[in-house]
Amino acid sequence: MSESGGANANAKKGAGELKVSKIRRGTVIDHIPAGMAPAVLRVLGIDRGVSDIVVMAMNVRSRSLGRKDIVKIENRVIDEETLQRIAIIAPEATINIVEEYQIIKKDRISLPRELHGVLKCPNRYCITNDPQEGVPTLFLCEREKPLELRCHYCEGLVRGEQVELIL
Amino acid sequence: MSDARWPGRDVISIREFSRRDIETVLREAQRIRPNPDLLRGRVMASLFFEPSTRTQLSFASACERLGAGVIGFSDVQSTSQAKGETLADTIRMAERYADVIVIRHRWEGSARLAADVAGVPVINAGDGANQHPTQTLLDLFTIRQYLGRIDGLRIGLVGDLRFGRTVHSLATALTRFEDVSLRLISPPNLRMPESVLRELEGRVDYQEQEALELEGLDVVYVTRIQKERFPDIEEYEKVKGAYVITPPIVREQLREDAVILHPLPRVDEIHPDVDGLPQAKYFEQAGNGVPVRMALLKLVLLGEDGR
Ligand SMILES: [Zn+2]
């Protein structure tokens, strides 16, 4: 993956630059903050057993991030809810869809206004943490940089670094 | 002017109140009078999963004065929640029995959950440490009643500013007004939380201080410092003593027309001898719970034009 150029340019240049094996068909998640690839794999449920090929690269040189991680998954299109989870831990990430070794679609992850059932509220007195009630969490994005979310229920403000994902 | 938004509206958090909304409630509260025909035939469900005598009684009183009936409970032990029923299910039952639901519950966000579930308006009478919007509205009503305005006032918040939800909500509400300045007086471990200070930024002038200096204030809003907040009992005794409002302090530091408020119950943070001074308005403040809650019941059931 190169930092610049269109999908085709990327695919061509990629051959020379990338030290990570290519996938034929699937999804490449690029520009993950260095060190966060294992967390992304957890979000993808890949730590719980998959049969497809998964490639992870950590601490790859990047012009915009200095160092970055990359995750490639064969035969997988990532659903919207999973993308929301990834957006929280890797807000700069890009999602590349690969067909026949070529990137056919490249998207920035964007953080949605509302996050349903994705995060745990850190306020232990929040109704979402009452086991008897079992109500799914709902967070509203108040600020993107730095990331700040407000719990719809207890109204507590949660900063990006306090976020705990529900996996 | 007709306003379609009031009938059916939930009252969950002061954060959802614009200046106009606050003004509407204060205006209604000022002119509303007991009228047994206004809400005749309506029923209010008063669901107090946690006891709060003053809030519960003033809601019941407001309801009776407008001719509506009251059903409900004031203790979670007597409810099916104690047997494992979810709050959501209790609300689904109550909304079929009543036209408006008033809820107090120890979990933060419980009132929002109730409002999301219920088809009838829900009024939050306190959800844990989070919100108690009717308290804030009656605080504002009392300030306006005695000082004639809220804009331009110098207001001191004293005591536990960290955990006291009434001072958080009041501070939020004051950002809707012009030229208010706040003096935040507390021990260092009980300072106003960062999230509230950030809301004030650019809207309300504020200064934080440890010393109990009240000169120049129009309003002194006192809250209780609780023992549980201190790991060390000696430290607590020392701090507590530094934030007690006494007659000499009032006489020396406050003008006669300044106002001392307290959400009650008061323990010893205001000396009983202050009660007789002209500035002491906390019992009047508690009494204002009735007209303010009458106004809210009228607004959510009938709207602004409702007669
Ligand atoms: Zn919460």
Descriptive report:
The complex is a heterodimer of chains A (167) and B (307). By secondary structure, chain A is of the alpha+beta class. Chain A folds into two domains: 11-108, Aspartate carbamoyltransferase regulatory subunit, N-terminal domain (Alpha-Beta Plaits, 2-Layer Sandwich); 114-162, SH3 type barrels (Roll). Helix content of chain A is 17%, strand content 35%. Chain A has a five-stranded antiparallel β-sheet with strand order 2-3-1-4-5. Residues 1-18 of chain A have low confidence and may be disordered. Chain B is an alpha/beta fold and 307 residues long. Chain B has two domains: 14-132 and 288-302, Rossmann fold; 133-286, 3-Layer(aba) Sandwich (Rossmann fold). Helix content of chain B is 37%, strand content 15%. Chain B has helices at 19-31, 53-65, 87-97, 110-117, 133-147, 165-174, 194-200, 233-242, 247-253, 282-287, 289-302, and strands at residues 43-48, 69-73, 100-105, 122-127, 154-158, 181-185, 205-209, 219-222, 259-261. The longest helix of chain B has 15 residues, at 133-147. Chain B is globular, with a radius of gyration of 19 Å. Chains A and B meet through loops of A and helix 4 of B. Zinc ion is lined by residues 121, 123, 126, 128, 151, 153-154, 156 of chain A.
Q: How do the strands and helices of this protein lay out in sequence?
A:
The complex is a heterodimer of chains A (167) and B (307).
Chain A: H1 7-17, E1 26-33, H2 37-43, E2 54-62, E3 66-74, H3 80-89, E4 94-99, E5 102-108, E6 114-116, E7 119-120, E8 138-143, E9 148-151, E10 157-159, E11 164-165
Antiparallel strand pairs in A: 1-3, 1-4, 2-3, 4-5, 6-8, 7-11, 8-9, 9-10
Chain B: H1 19-31, E1 43-48, H2 53-65, E2 69-73, H3 87-97, E3 100-105, H4 110-117, E4 122-127, H5 133-147, E5 154-158, H6 165-174, E6 181-185, H7 194-200, E7 205-209, E8 219-222, H8 233-242, H9 247-253, E9 259-261, H10 282-287, H11 289-302
Parallel strand pairs in B: 1-2, 1-3, 3-4, 5-6, 5-8, 6-7, 8-9
Helix pairs in contact in B: 1-5, 1-11, 2-11, 3-4, 5-6, 5-11
The structure holds zinc ion.
